[in-house]
Amino acid sequence: MEERKPPYFAVIFTSMLKPGQAGYGAMAEKMASIVSQQKGFLGFDSARGGDGLGITVSYWESRDSIRAWKEVLEHREAQARGRDWYGHYNIRVAQVEEDRDS
Amino acid sequence: MEERKPPYFAVIFTSMLKPGQAGYGAMAEKMASIVSQQKGFLGFDSARGGDGLGITVSYWESRDSIRAWKEVLEHREAQARGRDWYGHYNIRVAQVEEDRDS
């Protein structure tokens, strides 16, 4: 996401994808499409390396907008399948205090 | 990084690596080695996809420990070469409020 004046919020999602997860790509694309329509959503950045470790950081106007996204039906369905796809994952919520593009 | 009780701090570094950057890997390994010895450093996660977009999130005990790392000589030298390696990059500092492993 481009630089934006703080404060705003970030959800840092790190995950280790299991090998050979058919259907994972389609789910990830669907989530990206749905999240973009959420109230308070500002953008996201995502990268996954050859070792399977992925980091997705999504940016939000408020803690309430993060909580609302957590409860969206399609997102809850994806969350319920996390164990199928990921060997391990972690979710952090953080308040952004500084933001500088170069 | 494994789950850790908040509050603590995160530096979210997103970067678009230019193609064919000889020497970049060695510099990145050197930074990873040096940062691990910094006071207040808690850990980091890093991923770069095939499109060149990379995300590295480092975790810190305090804002002061982040400021101190920014001033380390070898790190300053790497920062000065950022334009050589990256088409674009962004640095965000955030306070982690929630942290949950699964």
Q: Describe it for me?
A:
2 copies of one chain form a homodimer. The first copy, chain A, has 102 residues and is an alpha+beta fold. Chain A contains 4 helices and 4 strands; from the N terminus they run βαββαααβ. Chain A has a 4-stranded antiparallel β-sheet with strand order 2-3-1-4. The radius of gyration of chain A is 14 Å and the shape is globular. Chain A starts with 7 loop residues before the first strand and ends with a strand. Chains A and B meet through strand 1, strand 2, strand 3 and strand 4 of A and strand 1, strand 2, strand 3 and strand 4 of B.
Our Rg estimate of chain A from Cα atoms comes to 14 Å
Q: Uncertain spans of chain A, ≥5 residues at pLDDT below 50?
A: none
N-to-C series of helices and strands of chain A:
EHEEHHHE
Helix-strand makeup class of chain A = alpha+beta
Instruction: Going across the biggest sheet of chain A, name each strand in turn.
Output: 2-3-1-4
Chain pair sharing the greatest interface: A-B, 33 and 33 residues
Distance between the termini of chain A: 12 Å
Strand content of chain A: 35-45%
Oligomer: homodimer
Question: Mean pLDDT score of chain A, rounded?
Answer: 95
DSSP helix fraction of chain A:
25-40%
Outline the biggest β-sheet of chain A.
Answer: 4 strands, antiparallel
Number of strands of chain A: 4
Described by the principal axes of the CA atoms, the overall outline of chain A is globular
Number of helices of chain A: 4
